[in-house]
Design a protein that fits this description.
single chain, Serine Threonine Protein Phosphatase 5, Tetratricopeptide repeat, alpha+beta, 10 helices, 3-stranded antiparallel beta sheet
Length: 260
């Protein structure tokens, strides 16, 4: 489920790694040649500038330095042949065009603002075209430098979406809180902090049945996958709500039921 709302794009040229890699220039999608994708991605993920020797040695570790340098020159040649001018090179270094942006850099900045509380305008509390399948950065790529960045982005988004859910609960924006919490749950269903926020959002909205359904589904999931039960704290939180419902005339439901 996408969460709508634009991320500002200050540049007309963006290196898109989510769902990519490809280049977006003046709203036109440019396909990076297959032989150049890893090079452009590596430069983008290492801060936008890297030495030629480091790039060649990392991307083509098999063989000698001369062969790695030849592969690097070939990747640059293919990029120029496709008329994609996002990556520049001199004798010693490779660097992205200084006027370009990278989508995950924008996403990291948005997440940091949410977590630090510096993003306060409601119009900034959304992510543009952010689908669950795009959260998994460059699926099918298994190099160490990709795996690390993939996990870093995943953790940043999990914490940001949980912060967003919490902010929306506090603002009585329960539908938005549920959406943000469900997004976090979709990224990592076994994450109890995300499941807890989803339960809290349902309870705040007055939907006890939905909260119980989420809990039971989560309980069964962690039991099947990990052989454990949800924390006592989470179970007792829901049990206290059920106990208050009993005092208000609702049918008694034992909290112990949720630990079975």
């Amino acid at each position: 489920m996408p969460i709508s709302g634009p991320i500002p794009r200050p540049s007309s040229t963006t290196l898109c790694l989510l769902g990519g890699p490809f280049v977006l220039k003046d709203n036109q999608r440019l396909e990076i040649p297959e032989g150049s994708k890893r090079l452009v991605t590596f430069v983008g993920l290492t801060g936008g500038r890297v030495s030629r020797r480091h790039a060649a040695g990392t991307l083509w570790p098999d063989g000698n330095d001369e062969r790695a340098s030849g592969n690097l020159r070939s990747a640059l040649w293919r990029l120029r042949g496709a008329n994609i001018e996002i990556l520049h090179a001199d004798k010693f270094a490779l660097y992205l065009d200084p006027d370009s942006t990278i989508d995950i850099v924008q996403l990291h900045a948005w997440a940091t603002g949410i977590m630090n509380g510096t993003t306060t305008d409601n119009s900034d509390l959304d992510v543009a075209n952010l689908h669950l399948e795009a959260v998994h950065l460059l699926p099918g790529w298994y190099e160490d430098w990709i795996v690390f960045e993939r996990e870093r982005l995943r953790q940043r988004l999990l914490h940001a979406m949980e912060s967003l859910a919490r902010k929306r609960i506090e603002c009585d924006h329960y539908a938005g809180a549920i959406e943000a919490a469900m997004f976090a749950v979709g990224i990592e269903p076994l994450r109890e902090s995300a499941q807890r926020l989803l339960i809290e959002a349902h309870l705040a909205e007055g939907n006890l049945v939905e909260a119980c359904r989420v809990f039971v589904t989560y309980r069964d999931l962690v039991s099947d996958e990990l052989g454990v039960l949800p924390s006592r704290d989470l179970t007792e939180m829901l049990g206290s709500v059920l106990s208050r419902g009993e005092s208000n005339g609702r049918k008694k439901v034992s909290p112990l039921r949720f630990r079975s």
